## 1
Amino acid sequence: MCTLEKRGNIFFLKLTGTDEHRLNPTLISSIRKSLSEVKSQSTPGTVLITIAQGKFFSNGFDLAWAKSSSNGSSSEAVNLLSHMVDLFKYVVDDLISLPMPTIAVITGHAAAAGLMLAMSHDYVVMRRDRGVLYMSEVDIGMTLPGYFTALVRSKVAKPSVRRDVLLRGVKVKGDEAVVKGLVDAVFDDGEMTVNGGVRLGEELSKRKWDGEVYCEIRKTLYPELIAVLGLVTKSVVKARL
């Protein structure tokens, strides 16, 4: 599950517990509920920081849940996985549409949909001493949802990095993740990583940007992703002319 806490202008969305934070319908619903609450309370200067307890940021979709809920039917397990893929698309939609800067703080492993959760934020910071970024689909035998591919193409500039992450399944650690453009900064341990994310959040909060304007500019940066998600952009002018 997850919790939501506000300190000043910063909301902290925390994936709680010491498990792998696998994305199943229950956790996805909990995240979406928290994001809805954040959006409803948004004011100029609001920032969202997403963090996770334990060894994992998120280890992707809950394949064990799909198997256990399928009554032994492999086809039903695949259907349940497809259901989770469809549900998670709305989490990406929510984050891309959130009217404020967003920061993912990765203090553990972020794999598959868990990495997509992190990359749906505006900024990603990571700890240097533990954890990897990993897209496991090529290794376990799954194609990527269209919105995953669009998100990676939108957020990762170098084709060679996209190739290595998606077609080779490379596991990327902190310093290499910065070089490859997958994260914005790395810090020596978990506490420093969280503190680094908070400092960035405080800097962004001071700008007091209008959330609606910020969101619409964000959406124009990623036209392919916006099209796949089915979002629309609009012109917003709130400047004093």
Note: Strands lie at 2-7, 10-15, 47-52, 56-58, 102-106, 109-111, 123-127, 133-134, 185-187.
## 2
Amino acid sequence: MAFTMHSHSGQFCPGHALNTLEEIILHAISLGYRTIGLTEHMPRTSLSDLYPEELLPSPEQTLASLFPRHEAYLLEATRLQSKYSNQIHILIGFEGEWIRGEEYAPLIKSLAGHEKMDYWIGSLHHTKGIPIDFDREMYLQAVEACGGTEDGLWAEYFDEQYQMLTQLKPKVVGHFDLIRLFSSEPSKQLQGTSSLLWEKVIRNLKVIKEYDGWLELNTSAFRKGLEEGYPKEEIVKEWIEEFGGKMTFSDDSHGIKQVGTNYLKGLEYLQGLGVKEVWTLERTKEGLVDKSVSIEEFRGCLRLL
């Protein structure tokens, strides 16, 4: 069975994505998906956390819209879950934000506790409160805030990720090394060349393994021009070979044009690193259970155009 555990719509992420939630689900069905995880971005709580694209018509108006939009998302996701239950298994979730832990940890716990929520993705899009995946300019601002070096920024990113992992234990850890996106050296080797950063990676992987979390293979790295997926090869190999960890699989789509993008490349990437299966969630009479899907079965379900 083919699936994604990470997706967004223009309906509930306006300015950031395209198409309605229903259009995305219908397109996923046409491509052979059997499961889709809906994971719109969680509401944020401060004007300083808005992206440049969200400042119009006014920052205050945007901020005031975020919580009502989240409630509208849950209602629509529940409707579609029922409407298409015979065609695709719909999981309802959200993508978390760890901008300021003391502020966002209680909010994430509250959102995750909603009766309709199946899971959530633990992601970092900020370091020192500065977006690190919006553009190169903001990435460099984050570098300066972390002492002026990329190694300093990466170290802070993995430290903030560690705080999120230990406090909240997300089932799915989103794009583990997103910090690479605007780096001057996105494929730099950490093992053996940057011992401090590698130690932080190992520390974080150990935490994820201890609570039985999953690393997401996120194929959006390929469409954004990176040679390796998220996570990079050395991290996937360490996770599989040394920790016996589990991988899940996502397109991180932001509209129908990105559903399934680079999926065959992503599957080949994992197979080349010795991964034989990926994991998703399945709803049973007993509740949600972990479900293993072989790479071959996954590939065989796809009807990519």
Note: DSSP finds ten helices and eleven strands in the chain.
## 3
Amino acid sequence: MKSKPIYPLLVCVLFMAIVQKGRAQDFKPLFNGKNLKGWYSFLKSKGKNNDPEQVFSVENGLLKITGKEFGYVVTEKSFKDFHLVAEFKWGEKKYPPRENKVRDNGILYYVVPEDRVWPRSIECQIQEGDCGDFWLIDSTTVVIDGLRTPATKNTHIVKKKDAEKPSGEWNRVEVIAKNGKCTHIMNGVVVNEGSDASLRSGRILIQSEGAETYYRKIEIKELK
């Protein structure tokens, strides 16, 4: 029996490898694992780039957020349509006024250029038991299930599914925002969606809100 040539198979394998490599290269790191280049910090009590207690630092390639003070790191660059990927896990420590509450953090996007706690934006909630919820800050609105949300100071939209891993394990969170549609994904599961967002461009922000939190990957792909 004559064996079939393996060349077409090899060509197919090589082609798929090139495609996968190309897709990976579409994502660019927002966090380089060495320092906070491309970001700046803001603390409620101290203002911009004044972080003497290192609420935000880089340790062993991880972004460490102590949570000791309310504030954030935020990108210097603004984004419009994008796919954001981040991997995080909770630490052990908690601080007032949330020392007796669930651990809380958050990724805000389409952040307007005004430094305060908290600036107008859309939040993908990172909180124990609530990862993927929407918080629509300072009159921001989206359409959920055909209805536009009210323009309030802070509007909360609970996720449709729960896909979190237990505290202490790494979780993968994704935000896809394109043409006003916002999708929150936890560990590969779509947990929340909104459309026709009233904000369509802005910076990306990661909170410090009373809980020790670690990020090991923050990547973005700008969508066309």
Note: Helices lie at 7-26.
